[in-house]
Amino acid sequence: MLPREEQPPGRFPGVRATLGGRSVAGQVFVLQVVIVLLLVVAAVVALVLQVRYDTTEEARNRSVAVAESFANAPGTREALDSPDPTAVLQPRAEAAREATGVDFIVVMNTDGIRYTHPKTDRIGKKFVGNLEPALQGRVVTEQIIGTIGPLVQAVVPIKDPDGKVVGLVSAGITTATVGGTADRQLPLVLTAAAVALALATAGTALVSRRLLRQTHGLGPDEMTRMYEHHDAVLHAVREGVLIVGTEGRLLLANDEAHRLLDLPADAEGRRVLHLGLAPDTAELLDSGRMATDEVHLVKDRLLAVNQRPTTLRGRPSGSVATLRDSTELRALSGRAEEARERLNMLYDAGVGIGTSLDVTRTAEELAELAVPRFADFATVDLFEAVLGGGQPEGVTRLRRTACGGIRKDAPLYPVGEEIRFVDSSPQARALKDGQAVIEPRLEEAPGWRAQDLERSAQIVDFGIHSLVAVPLRAGSLVLGVVSFWRSRKAEPFDSDEVALAEELVARAAVSIDNARRYTREHSMAVTLQRSLLPRSLPEQNALDIAYRYLPAQAGVGGDWFDVLPLSGARVALVVGDVVGHGLHAAATMGRLRTAVHNFSALDLPPDELLALLDELVARIDQDETEEEADTAPVTGATCLYAVYDPVSQRCTIARAGHPPPALIQPDGSVDFPDVPAGPPLGLGGLPFETAELELAEDSRLVLYTDGLVEDRGRDIDEGLELLRTALTRAGRSPEETCQAVLEARQPGRASDDIALIVARTRALGTDLVAEWQVPSDPAAVGQVRSAVTRTLQAWDLEELSFTTELVLSELVTNAIRYGGEPIRVRMLRDRSLICEVFDSSSTSPHLRYATMTDEGGRGLFLVAQLADRWGTRYLPAGKVIWAEQPLP
């Protein structure tokens, strides 16, 4: 044998080396050939199994289709009712079997007794198979081995028009009938597999030959030794080495590169842009461009980066970069980074502090920004008056408004604590002098420890060792003090950091002062608005009422509501809205609410009251336009006015540009009654119309403002539908209804006020109402007195007989003398005793003082003296004079 290097070269040395399997290429060749062979065998087996599965599925589908077609064919069900079903069905079944190619079609009754069969000797015998699902109305298929071989059969029910199963049809077909595909295709598959194996073997040989050239015929052991030597050299150098391939993927990084860049363990194979590197460093490595000693800041290191692109056959295929730690520039980079961080902090303070007009939230934003970027703990203490929107006057206590820290268990005063700093404390000196005060070493600061000896000792033991106290100043006004505490960093605060703290607090002070001013204005507006809204509901028996009022978070608005008792046990419900926010809207709302009170005292119908209110709004607009050109007019004011009468159980409603009311019937159904929509108040030109509703007892009338059903994110139709859904699910009581409506609202900041009233109707029973028709004859007055006496006795109100007879005598006498027929008298027992006299005249009575010589003119004077209240209510056909007396 000649040595290896002396062997004569053969004609195909690469192929022989590959087939020999000694080199890496040879081993790869053998492995790929085995894999291809296994794939071909797997493909053949899978094809055979698939063909068998398709054969079974085809048999099942054909048998089901034939059975269902025969079961639903005309005359099949009728044949079951004939005297001899076999005579009718056997010829049809055989003809269908021959036409469809199935092996049998069997028709049977519900007991499984056959009526048809290809073999006539089996007619009348019981069918073999699972019939239970078919008897329940379902189609059942099963695969069995019968006398004619493996087959698939289906059983289908025959149903009458009522859906009752009256018979069964079974059709079956052997798998051999539909099979055979695999036997026909197998030679073709084997031929294709042989060709694929040959092509794959040839391709694998070519690939292995190329691999042999690239590995230079080295075996696995030789390549392993070469890689180990290369790896040892690469990781032994004290410079970081990075090899980046195409698409910016990291192919290799030595140990020094991992250390300098703090790369993750799985960095190889990932894109350098996804390794968490600094943006400039990642961009350089990803670009592959040439670089010489470029300095990059990577965390606390300044790295000098050199990079050269690698080429393969003249084409760029990646890059190699080396990294060197420039320790001599670290001090300079630290100072530059510190300055940049301070600038960033001041920028973030301008952007992140003062995002809301809330004093407490602004103070919290200051503490959140300072920790941990500037201090380990930060506290903000504000004067009590500042939190309420005022200005601190004299020496007052401060309240801890915000506290932030790297830990939650620091022994500092908690948020909400009232604090009075002693004169020697840094905070008190900062408040007095208006300048920042630094305590570099708290354990050596007796003035600070005098604030609270026990707590001061705990703070020092906790590790807090340095403090900067900075006053919160907005111009000449001192709002509080901010304290910055340090624990982790051993060095105390220095003069540069004190300057940064002052700048940081100065920016926050402007935002806190703005929030304080807004709080003051908002509190004034809210106070005005609250004073203009009803603080309690009047006592009345006609309606059971619950209400809710939610002010807008953006500012006070002009929504209002009212419940106004009227004469005759009636009650008026009012809901209104002045569009807009602020003091002007609240003041205008108060004027309109007062006007509604005054107009309701006249007992006007809803449409007439809205007409007067419309004229008032127009006059307000005109006066404000003449006096102040910059005053916003009251355009957009809306109102809904409803009057409910518990005697007739009728509700009269009119609305001026307001959303329609909702009505919940006693059975729980919800609808929106058709109430004519008049124009908003102040526009004028069109009359208002009324709608009269018959309300069953225990109905619930829901009145609201548009803030409940309309906002920027949805239109009013969607809001009304959501309201309908909420009312449908609400409980029976008005309180439960209000709660359900508000809980169904979408969460978020309310952009408009919401006023909501839910009124459940009550009826004044017929036993509490007495009414008489009075003829136009003075003698009838005595009859009225007698009837009144009897009624009061029945109501256990004999104590009121004298005054009631006297009041009604005067009122009836006036109606007979000065009024017109018909004349009616009505008494109601409600929270008071109500007497009413109706006549057809529209002449208004007047109270006057009679002289000593006058023979008359004292009737209404006596009525006014004996009754708590009295008045006149005008109707379309006359007027009603009424008087109320308290019940004993």
UniProtKB/TrEMBL annotation:
Domain (PPM-type phosphatase): residue spans on this chain: 540-761
Annotated GO molecular function terms are: ATP binding; kinase activity; phosphatase activity
SUPFAM superfamilies in the cross-refs: ATPase domain of HSP90 chaperone/DNA topoisomerase II/histidine kinase (SSF55874), GAF domain-like (SSF55781), PP2C-like (SSF81606), PYP-like sensor domain (PAS domain) (SSF55785), Sensory domain-like (SSF103190)
Q: Which Gene3D superfamilies match?
A: 3.30.450.40, Histidine kinase-like ATPase, C-terminal domain, PAS domain, PPM-type phosphatase domain
The answer to whether keyword Plastid applies is no
GO CC aspect terms: plasma membrane
Name the CDD domains for this protein. HATPase_RsbW-like, PDC1_HK_sensor
Keywords, alphabetical: ATP-binding, Cell membrane, Hydrolase, Kinase, Membrane, Nucleotide-binding, Phosphoprotein, Transferase, Transmembrane, Transmembrane helix, Two-component regulatory system
Instruction: Please give the chief subcellular localization of this protein.
Output: membrane
Location comes to: Cell membrane
Membrane-crossing residue ranges in chain numbering: 29-51, 188-207
Name of the protein in its database record: Histidine kinase
Q: Whose protein is this, by species?
A: Streptomyces caeruleatus
* Upper lineage: Bacteria, Bacillati, Actinomycetota, Actinomycetes, Kitasatosporales
